[in-house]
Amino acid sequence: MSNYRNHAIAGILFALPFAPSLFYLFFALLGASIPDMDHVNNKNKVVVMFIIGVILAVALSVYDKLPLSAMIIILVAGIFYVSKHRGFTHTLLGVSVLSFLFTLIVMGFIPFINKLLIVSNIAWPSSILLFVVMILVGYFIVSRKYLLWYVLLVGIYLFLFPVDYGNIGSSNVFLMFFIGAISHIILDLWTPAGLCLFIPVSYKKYHRSMALLLILIWIICSLHYITVNGSLLTNFTSIFKYA
Ligand SMILES: [Zn+2]
């Protein structure tokens, strides 16, 4: 089994060609750890995630009739809890669905925060609000061993290069979560156990040849994306762009 650190590094490397700015790499870092939330060692974290989701849903319902992010936190915790290791969360369908749901969690807080700002009449800096959301999501996913480093890194980045939460692009957030999670799948395909990648369509187990095919697809997509959209690898002025 590849360890947390290897997955985190792979997530960042695979996302680099697609990242519109440096900040988005934090989403890839998180995405790279999403599939292993099904591991038995993470069951306590998943229970905490569920409890926080319920508390947020109750608390946020004061300001928001439908606290979307909180409801999705509960749903995602449920998916992790019932998934057996290297099952649904390690399939193409699973990483697509979970990347989408985590994007909704991140983006779903924006309307609530806007309402809260209007009601409370407090001009919180946007970076602080984004920091809180990033730490909340990181708390669910990041290994406890590296959580402090994650908090420090996100905090230092947002302090030095403030990001307007409202300018974060949802499609880019999804892309980063997805590529991070796909990098996890590629690393796990490299292990002898392999993965049943196409559940529920097929229960066939895939190994290194599928990992190589996914890497080939990644190379082609990377070159195409960089050519069409540019990248922080080729255009350094985009490093601190967010939309
Ligand atoms: Zn895994």
UniProtKB/TrEMBL annotation:
Highest taxon, organism lineage: Archaea
Keywords associated with the record: Membrane, Transmembrane, Transmembrane helix
Pfam families, A to Z: YdjM (PF04307)
Coiled coil: none
InterPro entries reported in the protein's UniProt record: YdjM-like
Transmembrane stretches, start-end: 12-34, 46-62, 68-84, 91-110, 122-142, 147-168, 174-199, 211-228
This protein's name: Hydrolase
